[in-house]
Amino acid sequence: MNIHRYVRNTLSGLLSFLFVVSSFILPWNHPIPSTYASEGSDWPTFHQNESRTGVSSENIQVEGLLEQWRFQTGSSISSSPIVQNN
Description:
Structural class: alpha+beta
Low-confidence stretches: none
Largest sheet: 2 strands, parallel
Order of helices and strands: HEE
Shape: elongated
Number of helices: 1
Number of strands: 2
Strand content: 5-15%
Distance between the termini: 75 Å
Mean pLDDT: 76
């Protein structure tokens, strides 16, 4: 085995080992705690903030809700509903 191949294999193995170990040690995702809005407060953006961590503690009354409009799209839409100025 020549010296270049030995060094390359050793460095490759060392880097792989360091990557695997660091993936368990270093926090890749910093959990962001949910932000509970005070009752009746306005949210300046979808899910209250730019991190989208807003959660409402209000109970929603679904009895008596009526469909107010309908729109036929050309395909499916996957999203969360937003109610503004209601």
